[in-house]
Amino acid sequence: MTQVDDSNLLRRRLEREKRARVEAEAILEKKALELYNANEQLQHLNENLEQQIQAKLAELQESEQRYRQLIESVQDIIYKISPEGVFTFVNSVVEKLLGYTEQEFVGKHFTDIVAPGYRKATLAFYQSMLEERIDSTYSEFPVVAKDGRTVWIGQTVRFIELEGNIAELVAVARDISDRKLAESQLQRTQTRLSTLITSLESGILVKDEQQRVILANQLFCDMFGIQDAPEQLIGQDYSRSVEFIKGSMEDPEAFAQQVEQLMQDRQAVTGEEIRMVNGRILERDYIPIFLKEQYMGHLWKYTDVTDKYLARERIRRSEEKYRGIMNNMELGLLEVDHNQTIIRSYERFCQMVGYAEEELVGKHAADLLVAPEFRNVINQQQITRKQGNASSYEMQLIRKDGSRIWALVSGVPILDEEGKIVGSIGIHYDLTERKQLEEELARAKRIADEARLAEKQFLANMSHEIRTPLNAIIGMSHLLFDTKPDQQQREYIDILKTSANFLHSLISDLLDMTKIEAGRIEVHARPFDLTGLLRSIQKVFEMKLKDRAISIDVMLDARISGDFVGDDVMLNQILMNLVGNAEKFTEEGSIQITARLKKQEAAKYWIEFAVVDTGIGIPKEKLDLVFQKFKQVNPHGHKHKGTGLGLAITKELVEIQGGTIAVRSHVGEGSQFTFTLPFGKSETPSEPVVVAPGNVPLCDDTLGCHVLIVEDNLMNQKYITSLLTKWNVPYTLALDGKHAVEEAKKQRFDIILMDIQMPIMDGYEASVAIRSSHNPNQNIPIIALTASAMLDQKNLALEAGMNDFLTKPFEPAQLRSLLQQYAPAEMVHDGDTMLDWERLNLLYGSDMEYTAEMLSIFLSDIVPEIMELPVLCQEDKRTELGQKVHKLKPTFGMVGLSQLEGKMAQLEKIVKQGSKDELLEIYCNDIIVKVNEMIPVIKKEIQKITPA
């Protein structure tokens, strides 16, 4: 081979190597790139894998945390236990439920906490689970807590298997103590209920929704002649029982149809009445049983009510009998309950109000039937009825057509068997016709009363108009005698005085008859000396008849002695009228007054009086006219005239006292008037009447006695001022009431003489103003000078705050007596502030310790209540004031404050009459002043009585 060839070969070899190297480098470079890329991918893969691992770890931790939180948050005990029964894990709930910590619990054998008595059974239960490889079981048993409590648990247990072997058991245990307790109580209740049902005095049958018997009692079997025992019926088809018992019914088919209908309707029905062939009567109740609206069966209850039915029938027949009686007696009966709801209305009552019974039952009686103005009456009667009291009252009922009827209602409470008040029954009597008659009579009476009032007002006005000048005439006639008249003047004065006295007598007779007809005269009984009264009348007429040929004698029964109890004022007027009448019709001869004891009945003495004269007598045909008003029996035109009222008044006065009067007379021989009156006998002597001699001074100069005269009539001013001047009594003259009030504010007086009818301000208004104003004369005596002798006018004077009254015309002696009676307080202070020991002795005798105790109680308990009177007056609490005055009034007499007791009686009277507030305050304040004056006197008496 040549060199060239060798070179070419070498070159080709080098080129092949070069190409091989280039190819190798290219492949190497490619592999390097692939390796780089693979390294890059591997690096990224490692980074992602690490992130995934971290994420999975975090997720696992979070899951484990949630798992732990879940286990810790449940209220049940979760635990693990080895196949040998040892606790390997427990959650913290175990400490809350059983008191063990997790550390105390783990490692224990489960039978250590099971309650004794249940350990063997529980162990056998779980050994059977393991042997039979039961995947999951549930059991209940009691365990013992750490503090010794017994806790019932119910637990579910599952086992965990690894490679065919049981590795461990997992359990969830729950506290079921409350449920177990409830089940126990339910079981006891069911037992009691079952026992109760089976022992009821009714036949009981209970079936389920499949119509199978689940309960029956012995009485049910006995009632329908079932031979099987109650427990043998349980589970039987109910239809068999129906077929069996319907044969004992009076109407078997109707019984079976009704049973079927009730079971279809499934609506409770009670008190259904069914009749048996043997005559017994049963009351059936059907009660369907539902549990949350799901039908669970029903209960049948049969009660033998034969005796009750028969008793009810007897009551019904009796009620129908008495209902007929009541309807025939025109009495309407209505029964209501405590709420005035109508329970029953009888036929006659329905007729009275125009409603049918079904329209009334269930309605409120007062709202439907009672007139609105009588609702308070019904409410008060309802209270009375609930207290168990019966009562009668009148009210108006509203009929269905809107008209009204009057009814007299007698209401009585209705009692149940236990004596409890459950309602009331009203017996209604229709008074409509009687009420209409009463209204007509009342209307007629009102017209008559108005006429009498007009007559009385006329007499009062005429009395005032006549008596005012008459007072001056009589008064001046008395004063003229003091001027030492000559014989002729004395005769004129006598004629003037006689005429005035006659006119006074006429007016007095008219007013006396008016008072009698108005029923304004009352009998005031008190002890008096009968013999002394008769002798006084004899002396009066002896002086009057001293210049005439007439003698007057008094003849007394020897059995009449001592003091009697009666109205001596009326007796005096009767005798004065009769003796005066005899004196008028007797020219000469005698007048004889006799008194004899006619009869005695226990403590009542009937005394017969007779006035016999020898006068002209009365014709027989006119004897019946003697006691009639305005009839004058003057035979032969006798000279004496008059009103013809004297003997009529006398007869009325006798009869007012329960006596009788008669007359016998013969013309030319005289007359005899005989009357009989009943009297009591006085145990204590009467107080003698002491007449002060004319020269006794009325006022003590050292006390400055001062009289305020309130009088608008010039003649009466002259008369009264002349008398006071004669008696050396200082006075101030006021011409009307307004002037008197002004004078009373300026200076203090000791007595006020107050005329009633005056211009500008009358005596009533002036007295109220003086009593209610704060001036020195607020409590001084005020004496009314009134020309009216009517009793209501005198009462008005007392209500206005006046202490007494003097009727015009009056004699000087009458005025003098009143002035002496109401002399300044300083002169009679000791008398006014003395206790009434006569009354105290009657009450307590010689027991001074008891007397002191009563006086002390009065100061401590009664006086504080008395001090509340002005407050009640000021606050216008009239009802409370009247109640308190009525309550306190008797206590004054019990401690010898008799005068204050009388003031309290006056206060009670004006409260009832609805007097003005100002007058009430005057009386209340006056009583307070008097009580305060008597408190030191009572204390002093207590000190005297109580030993040191």
What does this structure look like?
This protein has 948 residues and is an alpha+beta fold. 51% of the residues lie in helices and 21% in strands. It is built from 31 helices and 27 strands. The strands form five sheets. Strands 16, 17, 18, 19, 20, 21 and 22 form a seven-stranded mixed β-sheet that branches. Helix 27 (848-866) packs antiparallel against helix 31 and helix 29 (878-894) runs antiparallel to helix 30 (898-912). The chain is elongated, with a radius of gyration of 59 Å.
**Rounded Rg:** 59 Å
Which stretches are low in confidence, meaning pLDDT under 50 for 5 or more residues running? 635-641, 686-697, 825-832
Distance linking N and C termini: 188 Å
Mean pLDDT across all amino acids: 78
Helix content: 40-55%
Total helical segments: 31
Strand content: 15-25%
Largest sheet: 7 strands, mixed
Give structural attributes.
single chain; 948 residues; alpha+beta; 7-stranded mixed beta sheet; 5-stranded antiparallel beta sheet; 31 helices; elongated
Short description:
The chain is α+β, with helices and mostly antiparallel strands and 948 residues long. 51% of the residues lie in helices and 21% in strands.
